Amino acid sequence: MTAEQPALPSASDYLTRLVEYSETLHAHPETAWEEHRAARWTAELLGEFGFRVTTEYLGFPTAVHASYGSGSRRVGFIVEYDALPGVGHACGHNLIAAMSAGAAIALRPWAQALDLRIDVIGTPAEEGGGGKIELLDAGAFKDLGLALMAHPGPVDAPRAEPYAVAHDHVRFTGHTAHAAAYPHEGRNANDAFVISQVAIGLLRQQLPPTTRVHGIQTIGGEAPNVIPGATEGRWYTRAETLAELEPLRRRVKQCFEAGALATDTTLDFTPESQPYSEFRTDERASEIYTRHALALGRRFDAPVKHQTMNRASTDLGNVSQCVPAIHPYIGLDCFPVSNHQPEFAAVCIGEAANRVLADGATLLARTAHEYFAQASDAGPAGTGSAEEDFSRPERQSGGGRG
């Protein structure tokens, strides 16, 4: 540490602040594109630690960008903070946000030595909205040398292997009528949905086992004695790759078209976002992360069927097609409780969650440090424990405040 560099917070103060941030997000869940408080709290946290912060980044009201240092190379830590309707932070995005922010904060003392600019990108709408794809198209990830985030799950898994996915909004428009007195005057939009779902159920017999087709009906009618004139739903179609996804999506759409044809209703089948891509893992960064995770005591020997959260689709897949990236899963040791269950939201705060937060932030910071140290011949990563490096980053040489 140079004489000019201000003293860092103590380990207890530092970890306490990250836990406070995570638990605040958890207590106030906001869904896709509505993460106004989460974005503000993220900006405030990073501003406290000397980052240059931009809110409403690239014109997106709930996106945040923060940077530290002025090096010629860029590392990006990806923050997610949207929650799920009805079950809150049942995917643990509060922990994703805290791990990424914590890793960026921990890496600050090495920014000058590694010729780095440390970027934190707060990304809205991962849960079906494709926020990262919108940001990617706007140039948010341009020139990153590495993008990193870690995702909580029931157990550790070293890499993401997600399905490509299309998210579609379905609407049938028919004609209302009195169900007893004038049923022949109606065109039943709810029947259209029933026929479509039966067709999809039959289609599944001919689909490869590496595909997924699922969804919900969100509007089904108003009263039993009113033939529904409009129904709506949301449908997800998944395949191994984008190339395999589009022909599958066409077949799913034909099932909905069959429902419309049979009931004499009108179908609107419209994408909710751009499709999410399969993931391209940067193997060198993945090896570094896995090695440090094992040294820290993380384990990757859970049964494969327990690790399948790593098949969940993510819009970071699209980013990974353009810049080097990793997306490991870090376990809360809670199987069979798993993501998108209310019980999983409950374990995303508390003792196990705090350990995941500390480990995840440490491992992302150490991975980035070694990745760029190797590339610049700046020397190997520190030899102390990851916990020591996280709580006392001044043990490593570094530059002043960015």
UniProtKB/TrEMBL annotation:
Span of domain Peptidase M20 dimerisation: 169-260
Cellular component terms per the entry's GO annotation: cytoplasm
Location of region: Disordered: 375-402
Pfam families hit by this protein: M20_dimer, Peptidase_M20
Keywords: Hydrolase
Single Gene Ontology MF annotation: dipeptidase activity
Record protein name field: Peptidase M20 domain-containing protein 2
